[in-house]
Amino acid sequence: MAFFSYLISGLSLGAIYAIIALGYTMVYGIAKMLNFAHGDVIMVGGYIAFTCSISLGVNPYIATIISALGCMVLGVLVERIAYRPLRGAQSLSVLITAIGVSYFLQNVALLIFGANTKSFTSIINMPPLKLFNGELTITAEAIVTIIVCLVVMALLTLFVNKTRLGWAMMAVSEDKGAATLMGINSNATIGLTFAIGSFLAGIAGVLLCSSYPTLTPTTGAMPGIKAFVAAVLGGIGSIPGACIGGFLLGILENLSKAYISSQLSDAIVFSVLIIVLLIRPTGLMGKKQIEKV
Amino acid sequence: MEQIRNIKNKQFIYSLSTALMVIVGYAIMQSVINANLASPLIKGLMVPLCIYSILAISLNLVVGISGELSLGHAGFMCIGAFASCIFTRYMKWLGNESLLIFIIAILIGAVAAGLAGFLIGIPVLRLRGDYLAIVTLAFGEIIKNVINAIYLGVDSTGFKFSMKDSLDLNLGEGGIVIIKGAQGITNAPRYSTFLIGAIILLICVVILNNFINSYYGRNIMAIRDNRIAAESIGLNASRYKLLAFTIGSAMAGVAGVLYAHNLNTLAALPKNFGYNMSITILVFVVLGGMGNIRGSIISAVILTVLPEFLREFSNYRMLVYSILLVTLMIFSNAPALKDFRENLLSKINFGKNKKLINKE
Q: For residue A93, which residues of chain B lie inside 8 Å, CB to CB?
């Protein structure tokens, strides 16, 4: 039974990674940039929800929506101010800019909220589910997180495959120049991708802080990196890949924490990434790139 | 022939001026310190400045010259630091403390980090671009995590190793714990001085400049500029990239040795050996100019000193730093600002750059 409880908490952690990784993977697929500031958008989402629900006394569900919308605005603003001028510049300078944005967000949060850890009250106010005469307890947070992740993935897949905007996104990620010639506004499409990715980051921030109720200006950094690893593991640019990578990573992390060593769990997670990439250099679900001369 | 000679002369002057810059910088700072004009803050900054400069130029070899984005440079620094510190701590326990020990420790650090770079580089350098970046980041984190879980002790019967805790080592009478898990190495001897740091930096600069201008360096740059073309004239791309990666790692290891012996305690924290550190070094390299050794040193010095001088703004300093970083990147790299930048440069240089612009 202990194994199942570790497995389920791993699934719930993995679901959070998966939601964050979806944002990473979409932004990478379309703008071909590693958005290192994505993890800090999660942290901002957590702080917005914290301020709304605890200081202002807003209903927690409305606070979640406010926080997701706030993150969406933030994501679009960051894209507009910091990343758009650099479109067409070499990728390394965009990477450094993203790092600069990440420092900026962390330090703004530090100035407003201070370095002290804020304890976050879970937005989900439901009793845990008890199975097998109480031998297996599943927290409500875990159930909600997993459901939200699956719903988000399904909606996103539908959006990308069935709507005109989704097709535009695919076209831009395939070939930006050709897409522009077909009358697609590629800048607006990239902006839309950032909006969706940051919206998801806001939701992920609230869910993360509900399951692990501590909030500091660097809360988002490590989950951000892990989610990035999940996106690469699943094959960056692929929506189902991000989900599989996220779940795999969460389960792996929790099981190795429980059965091997809590100190080495990160090392194990990263080792698995390296092994997978050495066998399949574009990740589990990634497309093979053909090199043209 | 004339042209080749010109290029060679230019390279020689560049190398010489970089080396001179280090020497003059050292002389000025040392005389300021000798004249008692420097505050303790500035005195304490001297060795870190050397460390960051070495890290920046060694990463420049990997990222700028060889063109491989590595985000795990701090990991190699970590290996160099711990490998050398185990040795010096053991020697201290035996009662040996001298400059010779430190020189051996530097060599140990360089070899250990270089070996790690070589072993990691063999599989990893098969990957390209962003995948390489994430895998090197992962390796950096693995190194830090594993070192945090290691317990190493020594007593009269020899070295003892454990992954559990220090009691598990079963040390005999008079034995000491060298690495205490996450607490790291305590009571490490402090050998690093400004003079040693400056000398090592100078040696690294000379080695790197000679390497870049050598047969190997030119091949590495040819592979960076066009891998397929370089391979088609018979250059083994993986071998040359591995060479650059190994040398870069070894130099990072040397910087780690200096770091380890600049403090009393050495622990693998996210702050000093995590990916944040690797990113900080990368920022030095990118702002200093890719492939530009002198630029790396200048930007490492400025970006290390700047936050210290912004200290009076306390909480705002990192905010200012981040805004500066983003603005600088946009200003120096945005395609839309290219004309504006070139106009500005030609005004500053009084037509020195005009030739260049006309050519384009």
A: 286, 329, 332-333
What's the fold here for domain B11-351? ABC transporter involved in vitamin B12 uptake, BtuC (1.10.3470)
Tell me whether residue A49 is in a domain.
Answer: yes
pTM metric for this prediction:
0.85
B325 and A99 within 8 Å at the Cβ level: the answer is yes
pLDDT tens-digit readout, A205-216: 888 888 888 888
Question: Would you list the domain boundaries of chain B?
Answer: 11-351
**Is A290 inside a domain boundary?**
no
Residue numbers in A near B326 (CB within 8 A): 82, 97, 100-101, 104
Instruction: Quote the CA–CA distance of A260 and A4 in Å, as a whole number.
Output: 16
Q: CB B123 to CB A89 under 8 A?
A: no
Identify the band that residue B358 occupies on the pLDDT scale cut at 50, 70 and 90: very low
Q: Is B122 on the interface with A (CB under 8 A)?
A: no
Minimal CA–CA distance to B174: which of B150, B152, B153, B188?
B153
Q: Can you tell me the distance from the alpha carbon of B233 to that of B345, in angstroms, rounded to the nearest whole number?
A: 38
In a domain? residue A105: yes
| Among B62, B98, B47, residue whose Cα is nearest residue B258 | B47
Q: Does B30 touch chain A (CB under 8 A)?
A: no
Out of A66-70, A186-190, A197-201, B288-292, least confident range: B288-292
Could you tell me which chain B residue has the CA closest to the CA of A286?
Answer: B131
pLDDT on residue B340: 77
ipTM: 0.83
Structure confidence by residue, pLDDT tens digits, A77-113: 999 988 888 887 887 888 889 989 998 998 898 888 8
Nearest C-alpha of chain A: how many angstroms from B122?
11
Number of residues written out for chain B = 360
Strand locations in chain A (E): 118-119, 129-131, 136-138, 214-215
Sign of the alpha-carbon dihedral angle for B317, B319, B324, B329: positive
Q: What is the CATH number of the domain that holds A32?
A: 1.10.3470
Are A97 and B329 within 8 A, CB to CB? yes
- Is A148 inside any structural domain? yes
User: Which residues constitute the domain of residue A102?
Assistant: 2-279
Q: Which residue has the higher pLDDT, A167 or B343?
A: A167
User: Which stretch of A9-13, A71-75, B183-187 has the lowest confidence by average pLDDT?
Assistant: B183-187
CB pairs under 8 A between A and B: 128
Distance CA B322, CA A250 (A): 32
**Which of B129, B146, B319 lies at the smallest CB-CB distance from A104?**
B319
Chain A residues lying within 8 Å of B289, measured CB to CB:
none
Please indicate whether, in this complex, the C-beta atoms of A267 and B142 are within 8 angstroms of each other. Answer: yes
Domain count of the fold of chain A: 1
> pLDDT tens, B313-327?
767 777 888 888 888
φ, ψ (nearest 5 deg) of residue A60: -55, -35
